[in-house]
């Protein structure tokens, strides 16, 4: 497929900007906005009968899996295990009868994820895959395919494939919750409206690009950067750190905000920027109290939150990034945008090869 950058300087930036459209397309194939229901075409298993879901992936797709664990537990009340494919395949994981093994992969060709899929199939698990490449090996070999409709992703560091994976995982979590009797019709309708509005909220998030870019100079001078989050935004903190490492070559770590006192707080000084992902939601106050611990030790915080969240902390544009107010289910998709843009603008300032970072491959088809 021939794809060009259009008016954008890099494929990565073009792909970041495509997200409202491709997430909308992906959600569109799982939602019926008129009936306000989630519909998963051609399910080959009964969600009521699942004993467990094992989510397996690598890289950014692995962080999508981690986020989905919060959703599947919360909405569908299914036991969930999340695994890195290269670890899973060399352990002796105990698989339960009636388990679903779900493999998440942009390319559908990642060697470790494919090996894990073959292992689970041989173990008698139901296998399914969330893939962006419809003709991929994983799509051919799994019992069921849940496609993402991100279109070809050229930038080596995944962006739009990630948010499309999240869109599918959010829809599945609700569909399974409905099938298992944990979500009634009214709640389903409300959640479908939340999902349906995600593309608009993502467009609003893109409008913060200049504000995000204004923090890139500080980041580009840092040797280490920390990302903190809680709940489903904790894996997003991991993804933020991964994006920054991949394309700007700055060392970054994502941490569960409540865990900083068990290590990373020792790193805090005025030279370590700390990105705090704190949407207004049930865990806001908890995350903010961790932010205060960082500030008390001289840490330089950039707070990502909504207008109300930022104002409640007396912060300004100089030390925050304003996002639209969103439902907790939508926050990892919406906050992915400033996380990606921050890595992007930092890398551009550092002059790295954003679309093809050194030593990395788009698809790792050898072990
Ligand atoms: C490589 C890419 C990442 C991607 C990972 C998993 O490391 O650089 O962006 O997340 O592979 O790829 P997959 O195609 O399985 O999602």
TrEMBL record:
One term under GO cellular component: cytosol
Main localization, broad class: cytoplasm
Keyword Transferase in record: yes
Residue stretches making up the SIS domain: 43-182, 215-357
A single GO molecular function term of this UniProt record: glutamine-fructose-6-phosphate transaminase (isomerizing) activity
Subcellular location per the Swiss-Prot or TrEMBL entry: Cytoplasm
Active-site residue numbers: 362
Reactions mediated catalytically: D-fructose 6-phosphate + L-glutamine = D-glucosamine 6-phosphate + L-glutamate
Keyword Chaperone: no
Function: Catalyzes the first step in hexosamine metabolism, converting fructose-6P into glucosamine-6P using glutamine as a nitrogen source.
Protein's name in the database: Glutamine--fructose-6-phosphate aminotransferase [isomerizing]
